[in-house]
Design a protein that fits this description.
The chain is α+β, with helices and mostly antiparallel strands and 180 residues long. It has two domains: 122 residues, Beta Barrel (OB fold (Dihydrolipoamide Acetyltransferase, E2P)), CATH 2.40.50.140; 35 residues, no CATH class. Helix content is 21%, strand content 41%. The longest helix has 15 residues.
């Protein structure tokens, strides 16, 4: 019981540290999924949206940069794209100012902005209607490889040592990807 009383406040404190960057905070009024967009949202041009995903292409234009993003669901609190999920479509976003397109390719991004309508385009030979976002805030995420040990592997290692088992067994690190 004592451990629970110590761990619970610690858990709540650490959980509060997982927050979205400034400008990307969750709001009740923002659309956060491409599938939830309705024709009325496009006609209104007043909806605030928060989308994220992987940048597929970027083009520098006069005083702005146009990016095509493969949309991924975003984590509710941290606003990071969820790497293990499947895409729910694509969208176009316009960033103010010049951003070098080569630095944007294959990066992950979360954008907050206004839904400005649809833009017609093509994906290979197929016609596609892209939701168009005028970006107000955005965050580029850095993809990092991390090695970690599964706790079950360490348990097996120490159990084998305890009973005089093979001493050459060492757990293998596993690889995972995180966004920072």
């Amino acid at each position: 019981m004592r451990k629970l009383l110590i761990c619970l406040p610690l858990f709540l404190l650490l959980n509060a540290c997982i927050s979205a960057p400034p400008g990307l905070e969750k709001s009740e009024f923002r659309v956060q999924n491409l599938r939830k967009l309705s024709p009325d949202d496009y006609a209104c041009q007043c909806k605030e949206v928060r989308f994220g995903g992987k940048i597929i292409a970027a083009t520098a234009l006069q005083n702005k940069t146009k990016i095509e993003v493969l949309s991924l669901p975003i984590a509710s609190f941290s606003a990071k794209p969820v790497l293990t999920s499947t895409s729910d479509g694509r969208f176009m976003a316009y960033l103010e100012g010049f951003v070098d397109p080569e630095t944007l390719k294959d990066q992950y991004i979360t954008v907050v902005g206004r839904l400005m309508g649809m833009e017609k385009g093509k994906i290979d030979e197929a016609n596609y209607d892209y939701p168009l976002i005028q970006v107000q805030h955005y965050k580029r995420w850095k993809l990092v490889e991390e090695y970690y040990y599964d706790p079950d592997d360490w348990y097996d290692y120490w159990e084998s040592r305890r009973f005089g088992g093979f001493f050459f067994f060492r757990p293998e690190p596993r690889l995972r990807y995180n966004l920072y």
